Amino acid sequence: MEYKAPLPKRIGLVADSHDRLEALATAVRVLEERGTDALVHLGDICDSLRLDLLEDSVRLLRRHGMLVVKGNNDFMLENLLRCQPPDNQGRFDHLAAFLGDLPMRIVWDGICFAHSLPFDHLRSFYEPIDIGTTERAEEIFRLTPHRILFCGHSHRSALFRLAGDKVSRENVPPGQPLVLDRAERYIIVTGSVMEGECALFDAGAWSVEGIRISSEGCR
Q: Diameter of the chain by CA atoms?
């Protein structure tokens, strides 16, 4: 999915909430208090084994007008919902439709939001970008034009930087905006809500900040 509207100035980023409703609500509150203009969930809103919590998660996302891309657990639960026994037919149609309509990626003014790899095939859900080396990041930089890719899936924050022809891996220290170089390209793994992490991207300042939220309710 590609958006033609101007990029919002301040974008709150969450990922991998896995039905931790209290933690997701805390992350949303913290980000909204920082004056976000948009909220993006980078996938795995649900846990493939917790169908009972999906409806509450979807209700929270809709209440805050969040943009959402599909994660591997969302994909698995979507398929589970479409294969319900006869006595449950129709009961979960609205949730299956919600998950089915989620895009695998959003591209907005040269910035891509995805669960992991920024492609439209199943490998994109399951293969993490952060494998302890820069090898997969190098491949993505080579195959895509995005100025920044924001993603989740790895559950730990990390930043990959392409400066010239060199790719480096760096940590994203929480609580301190990191000003990005507009001449460079980046892959930024935001960390997971269930591990107490979210992030804020300021498109005006061209900066990203990792944010720690209360650990209460994250487990």
A: 59
- Confidence band of 219 (pLDDT split at 50, 70, 90): very low
> What is the C-alpha separation between 112 and 187, in angstroms, rounded?
9
For 36-76, the pLDDT digits (tens) are 999 999 999 998 767 778 889 999 999 999 999 999 999 99
Is residue 217 domain-resident?
A: no
CATH number, domain containing residue 61: 3.60.21.10
Distance of CA 200 to the CA centre of its chain: 12
For 141, list phi and psi in degrees, rounded to 5. -60, -40
Chain centre to alpha carbon of residue 2: 16
- State the residue for tokens 């944010």: 211
> What token pair was written down for 151?
């993603």
Q: Rounded distance, CA 98 to CA 88, Å?
A: 17
In a domain, 187, yes or no: yes
Bridge partners of 210? Answer: 174, 199
Distance of CA 70 to the CA centre of its chain: 9
